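Running co-folding for adenosine monophosphate.
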Amino acid sequence: MITLGIESTAHTFGVGIVEDGTILANVKSAYEPDEGGIHPRKASEHHYANAKQTIDNAISKADISEEDIDLVAFSQGPGIPQCLQIGGTAARSLSQKLGVPLVGVNHCIAHIEVGKLETGAEDPVTLYVSGGNSQIIAYAGGKYRIFGETLDIAIGNAIDKFARSIDIPHPGGPRIEELAEKSENLVELPYVVKGMDFSFSGLVTRLQQMLGDYDEEDLCYSFQEYAFAMLVEATERAIAHLDKDEVLVTGGVAANKRLQEMLEVMAKERGANSYKVPNEYAMDNGAMIAYTGQLKYNSKGETEINRSGIKPDWRTDQVEADWNG
Ligand code: AMP
Ligand code: MG
């Protein structure tokens, strides 16, 4: 079975093509803001302008023809409404044109499923950290449940915000990581973990107040140490409560070496295995949507056109994900 999947929740218009457990193509076109963060209208205009070409590129990369496609999957949510709309429209029209079923996929669950496919993790506690999401998720009782999450902004968004205040363009993560590597001087910052949840906006405000009085490298280093320790603490508690022995990290922020190292140390101390999703599949991508669409279709069938509207606030734990057995 060949599935084409479309991702368009935020900055990336991605198209993946999957044949059962094999990824045949994973192509993307990413909107990059000239200044500031992601502008919803501009991002959606970018997606609209690049949708057809990206779909065509994926089909030729996979070395198939349109008629070989058996199923069309798309990111139904959560995400920026204007952006989701473009992917949804492209997916509906492609499925109708080809006369094949359509399936709507939850973006966060897709990150986990492709992560399991790529790393071999079977039943992990997942730390999903990106520009728009920060969640600790694990499978329990037929659903992916959220055991901890940010109370305000996502970690990637926090990093990008602070980066902008020191004139680093979007996305700021890689440059902040480079600056952090140049310091070992920890300065005190707010550490906010509440139960299993965490919060980053106060941390960013404090960092912005400290600008000018402290060395930027020290601030970047301390930011990473504090923010990642908060994430790892909550992830560790989820592993302990759930008695799982795998931790999977995914999302754009998973590219950060220091975060990976802190998770590895924690996992090792608990006798658990730590897995990092390769960057190509940790960032937003179409392959994860195609692969998860196929899993969902095989267990639950298609998404009827009248139920295929976008779901900007769709939560991970609203999905019956019982294809996991
Ligand atoms: P995503 O939303 O999954 O596409 O991920 C994008 C987010 O990942 C942005 O907020 C980036 O700043 C962040 N990011 C990318 N690379 C790194 C890195 N090396 N360290 C920290 N954050 C990163
Ligand atoms: Mg994502």
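Result summary
The chain is about 45% helix and 20% strand.
Residues 89 and 309 are 9 Å apart (CA to CA).
Job closed.
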